[in-house]
Design a protein that fits this description.
Layout (H helix, E strand, L loop, with lengths): L5 H5 L4 H4 L6 H21 L4 H24 L6 H17 L7 H4 L6
Helix pairs in contact: 3-4
């Protein structure tokens, strides 16, 4: 998956979580992949408004919901620090693709974490 947005291509998603041994790298890799797939979908589908963007980010959020079980199996969880970092990366993605007015809570509305 080739990402053409330079800001996104240069971003190290979930970077602070990789620095904390509480979060297993192999699960973070899956989270990073979710975010990169989201970016690829945004580039491919070019949502024209916030409602269309929220559909894409909602689907990615649901993937993170499923990833919670992977965290738990590895003795970790999506707790406050992880929640904030994931939300920040969603906000970054929205902004990088021109949706600076996106509401972070709307971006991750279906979250269960």
């Amino acid at each position: 998956m080739l990402i053409t947005n330079r800001q996104v291509a240069a971003r190290s998603f979930l970077k602070p979580l990789y620095a904390d041994a509480y979060y297993p790298d192999h699960v973070l890799d899956q989270g990073r992949a979710i975010l990169l797939r989201l970016c690829a979908r945004i580039e491919a589908e070019a949502p024209s408004d916030l409602a269309a963007l929220y559909v894409l980010t909602g689907a990615a959020t649901e993937e993170f919901n499923l990833l919670e079980a992977e965290f738990e199996a590895a003795g970790s969880e999506i707790e406050t620090v992880a929640r904030e970092e994931i939300a920040e990366d969603f906000a970054f993605v929205a902004s990088a693709y021109g949706f600076q007015d996106a509401d972070v809570e709307a971006l991750i509305a279906p979250r269960e974490w």
